[in-house]
């Protein structure tokens, strides 16, 4: 369903009226397209503190001066005391207003040093700074913090955040501290030669994820329940992939997937999910168990099976779908919130072991209000609240979740592991 309020605020009368009434004034976001693959304008590079970071190794076209930058990269990795935080203010204060509409601010920090509580304090301060700036910067601009130790290893993350692909990702703190040394991928088609399986891919967000991975060169396997086999086949045929009709909750689902993919799997996207909303006092056991079985148990079982069988190759990627409902909770969704919070626990526990034992990274995306058929059925006033209660004052699109998933699936994203990245326009709810 079209966001008529967003359209109205883009008109001259709409801008005048909403400004006079103090109403939200969302800016139409500039997303990736073949005609506009990059931000329009220079990338301004600023520094706070004494930094040893080699940003030249990323190949990003950074400049030290720009009157109207499309993005600002502030290297604050050298900030180790409160005086260094003053340099953050000094660097950004004069330029924030000049950042282009739908522009980006990316702050670079380092992991917290457990042996230096001063460094840990000020580097943690960057998180509060980043999230606060994201809530006030406006005009479709986003602000994110990347904690890193090596710029080259974090290159895919920086390129994602400094591109139109990250239009609905703001207020996030991402750690890119692993090793991606020596990993290369074809420009424009980084998933060429890789096989990606997407569950729940016959429609909605899953179909958008499959389409984006196929755009990036992957051979896509579109998995959905037998009842949606025809829709799954249509998506697969359109993308040059294959369809797999399978009940993901079956005890042997992992074995069936392994049998269907004798050559192995490079990317596993856990997207399948259902809702059976009702307040706990009115929720029968079947509504509870069905949601937990699809949204969490099936993810645990199939992941374990595909790792144990070796179907998921070394260098592989697992990306699961969580939700801000699992981070902040939501009335009437105790079952859904529990399942999605469980995904977060899975990611944080499995990620280090999966990387050490299987060479596979494990991350999650956590969508907020995304414009789908499901959210279109929500009553008007609740739907409008969902759209406006974020820093960008609008709902996201399925492609926003898909672009974030594709970044995490990128061969050069090995430095990102154990992360839960919200795709919510910096929702005012949740962490």
Please characterize this protein's 3D structure.
Keywords: Oxidoreductase. Residues 194-368 form the Ketoreductase domain. It comes from Streptomyces dysideae. Belongs to the short-chain dehydrogenases/reductases (SDR) family. Its EC number is 1.1.1.100. The chain has 431 residues and is α/β, with parallel strands linked by helices. It has 2 domains: 22-176, 3-Layer(aba) Sandwich (Rossmann fold), CATH 3.40.50.720; 195-423, NAD(P)-binding Rossmann-like Domain (Rossmann fold, 3-Layer(aba) Sandwich). 38% of the residues lie in helices and 18% in strands. It has 14 helices and 13 strands. A 7-stranded parallel β-sheet has the order 9-8-7-10-11-12-13, sandwiched between helices. Strands 2-1-3-4-5-6 form a 6-stranded parallel β-sheet, sandwiched between helices. Helix 6 (204-215) packs across helix 14 (398-409). The longest helix is centred in the C-terminal third of the chain and has 25 residues, at 334-358. 49% of the residues are buried.
| CATH architecture descriptor of the largest domain | 3-Layer(aba) Sandwich
The secondary-structure class comes to alpha/beta
Tally the structural domains: 2
* Largest sheet features: 7 strands, parallel
Distance between the termini: 28 Å
Strand order of the largest sheet: 9-8-7-10-11-12-13
The level-1 CATH class of the largest domain: Alpha Beta
The total count of strands amounts to 13
Helix content: 25-40%
Supply Rg.
21 Å
Unreliable sequence segments: none
Q: With helices defined by DSSP (H or I, 4 residues minimum), what is the helix count?
A: 14
Domain Ketoreductase: 194-368
Keywords: Oxidoreductase
Enzyme class: oxidoreductase
Protein name: 3-ketoacyl-ACP reductase
